[in-house]
Specification:
110 residues, globular, mainly alpha
Length: 110
């Protein structure tokens, strides 16, 4: 079988540990492989992104998977200081897509 492992290096002294956990959990759904019906739309938004205001934080500019995971961080309230002061409509759409993913996930877990 396929086994995923997450390795986190942190001193546990601040919010960076929690943000890292949220970020790495986000990677579990950064494709359509895990049944994420929202990935294709998010990936399309990522491909349209061209300015820093299109990303939750600069690390999201690395690729679509990091963009997805950094949006998780922002939704959970981490790295708000790194988010653009004036988020673009693309970033707002990305955030809405991830929020829709959460709502669908919660509805199917209950």
């Amino acid at each position: 079988g396929y086994e995923r492992q997450i390795h986190i290096r942190s001193d546990l002294s601040n919010d960076s540990f929690a943000a890292t956990v949220v970020h790495e959990f986000g990677h579990n759904w950064d494709s359509t492989a895990e049944g994420n019906q929202y990935w294709s739309g998010f990936d399309s938004l990522n491909q349209q992104s061209s300015t820093s205001n299109d990303y939750a934080r600069s690390y999201g500019e690395t690729n679509a998977k990091e963009d997805w995971a950094t949006n998780w961080e922002l939704i959970f309230g981490y790295y708000e200081w790194a988010a653009p002061a004036s988020p673009s409509s693309l970033l707002q759409q990305k955030q809405a897509t991830v929020q829709d993913f959460f709502a669908n996930f919660a509805a199917n877990v209950a």
